Amino acid sequence: xxxxxxxxxxxxxxxxxxxxxxxxxxxxxxxxxxxxxxxxxxxxxxxxxxxxxxxxxxxxxxxxxxxxxxxxxxxxxxxxxxxxxxxxxxxxxxxxxxxxxxxxxxxxxxxx
Amino acid sequence: xxxxxxxxxxxxxxxxxxxxxxxxxxxxxxxxxxxxxxxxxxxxxxxxxxxxxxxxxxxxxxxxxxxxxxxxxxxxxxxxxxxxxxxxxxxxxxxxxxxxxxxxxxxxxxxxxxxxxxx
Lengths: 112, 119
Prior knowledge:
A: globular, B: mainly beta, globular
């Protein structure tokens, strides 16, 4: 299984940007990089995903290294609602039918 | 946005009971749904991939006769935990991917999970 490495936990002050790193040195050329987050007692929520180019959406930005061996999820202005476990996942498998293998993720704490 | 509904959200039952969990995609069709299990303070573990109109594909170590999956329509997949025992107590989560389009445009949408407690 394609594997990712994330810090176990991070803290950030409210209203400041947050940069969540992820290493995926064994990524293959067709693996997409996905980010999901999970609040307590809820299912994961899709955040963002990309292949090679940096991506932006209303929730976050995804910066992908040129060699694709690492990526960074950027929350531009953290709020208390952003406190969650963030998972960086490589989508693997047949095109259009990828399964997601969740690692341990990064527990993000937002300090008021 | 895309919504996936799970029912029930929690269930408590006696050992030996069979429990059925439903996963519905409310505003899109899903040829593929996934079932996960999550124990306290652990990450999600994929149990099986549910394909509409065909047999599910189970991950290694998951007993297919214990965890029965049926994906009878493009909007509904069910997971039945047969003869449940206390060690089956867990948080079960489903996800669905919108039919059609390329993967690059179709993330997985997760339900809010079902907390199963077997006494």
